[in-house]
Write a structure and sequence with these properties.
homodimer, four-stranded mixed sheet, about 200 residues, alpha+beta
Chain lengths: ~200, ~200
């Protein structure tokens, strides 16, 4: 069995949300599983000297045009949440805690969190919002709420972020296909082409 | 006649070079002229807090993989020039000086400069290199060499850069299609789609 596509994203990344709407379909069409891997761009930006896209003069204005335009092109709902940018650490910790028990359910949680943020424009930054969404997927709110306070759950996310940086991941979305890196929602077609042809 | 596509680029931008290989073909297929407009990213980066892509940790390493990969996909030669990044002010001044006399010849100069830099990896930063390439296109080296020292030629480029910033241009390549902004070589397909459909 071929290695899964690694799909890195930050829950607070609107382009990550857009990629999340398409990457599983690409994997399915090419016979590859997709391993979703939330990261924290805030932990990586000091290395690259970046800052949240929407805060950058000129670039931010452009992104506010480009994001809904991409969403219209691919036919998915899009809304900017308030506040933005927001902390995505609770969602990311919840994801890995759940993934260690049930990978499919963790992906379901990720999709639900993304849909809340960028599909409906809701505030998904707090642990409370994440726990509530998880509850809708049959996850015990009290158990998840307690887990989010555990040091080993915090360490799990930190190790994932460090591991991503170690692989050269610096943005969201970011894909690794058999080690080949692709950055940006606008590389989805290249990811698909690479899987189809084996590279060029 | 519909307005031309505005194609903004920096002569020192490798993604600008890649876009330059494709944008005229897209314009031709959609019945639009393409107005080439060199700018200086160095004059814009203070506004956006950016720096030359290849100098950025992690991002630079990625670009060194992605650039030749895009070039292979579209089948154009690609080489990183030395030194890099480099000053592109001489090429940009020469372009507008020539464009005011003969727009087609200016585009020919732009293509030749880009080919020298990123097709062959040559150092095109100095006035001497630009004048030499221009000479190959039948432009009198002495006349161009003198023009590059004129204040009005310098002011012409400065006005173009200021005008571009005023329109929200912050990167290379950057396209305006009837006022709609598209940033990045990976938006070429969107530019084409926008021209075909009138937008979405």
């Amino acid at each position: 069995m071929a290695e899964p596509i690694e799909f890195y994203f930050d829950f607070s990344s609107p382009y990550g949300y857009l990629a999340a709407q398409e990457i599983d379909r690409i994997g399915e069409a090419r016979g590859r599983a997709v391993s979703w891997k939330p990261i924290l761009l805030g932990a990586i930006f000091p290395t690259t000297g970046s800052q949240p896209l929407l805060n950058i003069p000129l670039k931010g204005d452009y992104a506010r045009i480009d994001l809904p335009r991409v969403a219209r092109r691919v036919g998915v709902p899009f809304a900017m949440p308030t506040p933005f940018p927001f902390m995505s650490v609770a969602a990311a910790r919840a994801f890995y805690w759940l993934a260690d028990q049930d990978a499919a359910k963790a992906k379901g949680l990720a999709k639900a969190v993304f849909h809340g943020s960028f599909g409906e424009g809701r505030d998904m930054s707090g642990a409370g919002a994440v726990v509530e969404v998880a509850g809708g997927l049959g996850i015990d709110p009290a158990v998840l709420g307690a887990a989010l306070q555990e040091q080993k759950v915090k360490d799990r996310l930190r190790a994932e972020v460090d591991g991503a940086i170690g692989k050269g991941v610096f943005g969201s979305p970011f894909f690794l296909v058999d080690g080949e890196p692709f950055w940006g929602n606008d590389r989805l077609q290249d990811v698909d082409g690479w899987l189809e042809t084996g590279g060029w």
